[in-house]
Every structure is written in C-alpha cells, then in structure tokens.
Amino acid sequence: MTAAIEQLEGTPRLRLKLIPLLVTVALAFGVPMAGALMASGVLRLLHVRWQPGANLPWLYAQHAGQLVVALLVIAILKYRLVPADYGLHWPRGKTYVRPAILWGVFFGLLMTVVDYAPQILMHARLNSTAANSPATFWGWMFFEGVYVGPTEEIPFRALLVTYLMTTMPGRLRVGRFEMSWAGVIVAAMFALLHATNFATRHWAAALGQQVYAFALGVLYAYWLEKSRSVLASCIGHNVGDVAECIIAFAWIGVFPA
Hints:
Blueprint: H1 2-8, H2 18-45, H3 56-81, H4 97-115, H5 117-121, H6 134-167, E1 171-174, E2 177-180, H7 181-192, H8 203-227, H9 231-252
Antiparallel strand pairs: 1-2
C-alpha cells in the first residue's frame, strides 16, 4: 500500500479503468458469495444444518468463509499479480484508533436512530428474539464487538480498496480533505450490498442505511489509507456495531444478570 500511496501523490485526477473496476465489482459480490458457499459446504461435511439468513450461527459461518476467501485472494494478488501492502499489520505511524472508537460510538447512535426510526416515532418498545438466552446474548455481543470488524474490513478495505487504489490511482480532494477514489468507489459497493434491506425494512430506514453504510465505508477506507493498516477500520466497525447492539438489547431489556 505504501507504494500505491506514493504513486497516488502525483495523480490527482481519477482515470477510470474498465478491468480494475470489473475485477473490484466481481470481488465485492463474489467474495461474500464464495464465503457463503464455503460455509455451506463445510456445514454439510460436518452434518450441521444451519439455515442461511440473518441468524447468528449462519452469520458466524458465512463471515468465516468470507474472511478465508479474502485472505486467499490477497495472497494470490500480493505475490503474483498486484504486489502491494494490504494493511494486514500494525499501523506504521498514527494508529487512528482513538478516532475510530469515537466515530464508532457516534455512528452506533446514528445507526440506531435510522434502523429503528419507526419504533422511535411510535414510542413502541422493540420486540426481538435475537437474544433470548445468555448464550445468544454474548454470541451477538462477540459477533458485533469483535468478529464482524476483521471479517468484513479485510475483504472490503484491505483487499478491495488496496487493489483498486493500486491498479486505478486517483485522488478525491474536497477542501482540506483528501483520499483515494478507490475508497469512495468501494464504499458505494459496500452500501449496495445492503440494498436487500429494502425488501425487509421500511423504505426510509433502508435508504438511511444506504447513506450511513456509504459514509462508514468512506471513513474506514480513509483510516486504512492514512494508517496503512486495517486496524482502525476493524475497530471502528466493531465499536459502531456493538454500540447499536447494546442500545437495542437495553431497549428490549434482555441483559443477562
């Protein structure tokens, strides 16, 4: 990634390149799908039946498969096709961990307001069976607070942003803010992968989720580029998701004694 950033310093304008864009789109949608297929295959071998969907066991399995696929692709690209620093190490300089925690808390509150806007407006209590026992409660807490960060940020930021930033240089500048266009493009893809929520949520909540998913994707990519590590992106992702999870569980009233 260091070489990619140095190359970008003299490349302020974005020049679209079809092949890198197509590869990035294919990876953005293909890696999660391949992770799901891998998880499904392993579960069949183990004679375990977990229904695909937004349930905790399947999410653990699918995200594990997604992470394995992403690491394999990074290894192939790094040593064969697109040599670059993919950020799988401790930050070289400023860690951006503190901003990641603070912004994570802020977005956790914002996501709660957006996702549960109908219940908030109606002053209705949230009903859910997501944490109907201490085991599932701590399972969700670990998933949102530890597991989801690396299993999503390594595929999307470490892999996709680094690949596109290396193969299609270009800088976005708005006032004093500057970052690679790759981070913005991948953030749009990251948001679109959440578009299935239009089928299950109120359209306003689903649209709001598109907006904050895009904003978060840009922020995660910015931290990756500035710190040259995926650490802050993972921490910010975890903090935001677990903050919303804690608020939701407090609202439901399911904290174990």
